[in-house]
Design goal:
The protein is about 60% helix and about 15% strand. The chain contains 8 helices and 4 strands, in the order ααααααβαβββα. The protein has a 4-stranded mixed β-sheet. A hairpin with a 2-residue loop joins strand 3 (about 150-155) and strand 4 (about 160). The N and C termini lie far apart (about 50 Å).
Length: about 180
């Protein structure tokens, strides 16, 4: 159900941004809103507190985001509060920001390696991704996972390229188990 809510409201925001040719404004505001929602625990507690009436929550949303987000975004947040869906604000705005990134051809890559990569290696990885995908720029997220032994795992959306030694050893072991002598 939460996925349906984020898709419904996120698609509506995206349609407004596209229709009014305000994609960049909405994108920047969407990033600010998600950052506030992600980092401010008190705001989340306030929005989900059962003893605070919805009208008061709406007033708080309007006060906090006035001047920081377009009125249409504030309207969506207030609507979510009114409908008892305040807890899904972050997923709505995460979904909206991901739609805009797709529209702007900004890919998000998560790269896991066994050891930290040098800046030159990171540049080569990013360039290879730019050469082999539809994206024009990338947000790169690197992490180190020693259990990979070597190689790397790259995830872009729901696509995964796994060239880690850990996986190759697993596949080799699985293949050897199927060999009959």
């Amino acid at each position: 159900m939460a996925k349906l809510v984020s898709k419904t409201y996120g698609d509506a925001l995206f349609a407004v941004a596209l229709e009014e040719d305000r994609m960049d404004e909405f994108f920047e505001a969407g990033k600010v809103v998600t950052e506030v929602l992600r980092t401010n625990e008190e705001f989340g507690k306030l929005m989900n507190h059962p003893k605070i009436i919805k009208e008061e929550k709406v007033r708080i949303v309007e006060e906090i985001f006035d001047g920081k987000a377009p009125k249409e975004m504030i309207g969506v947040m207030c609507l979510l509060v009114t409908k008892g869906r305040a807890g899904e604000m972050l997923s709505v705005f995460d979904y909206f920001v991901s739609l805009v990134k797709e529209e702007k051809k900004i890919g998000i890559a998560h790269v896991k390696t066994a050891v930290p990569l040098s800046s030159g290696q990171k540049t080569k990885v990013e360039q290879r991704l730019l050469d082999t995908t539809k994206y024009e720029t990338f947000e790169m997220h690197y992490s180190v996972e020693p259990s990979l032994i070597g190689g790397m795992v790259i995830r872009i959306g729901d696509r995964v390229v796994d060239s880690s030694i850990q996986t190759k050893l697993y596949e080799l072991t699985r293949g050897l188990r199927n060999v009959r002598v």
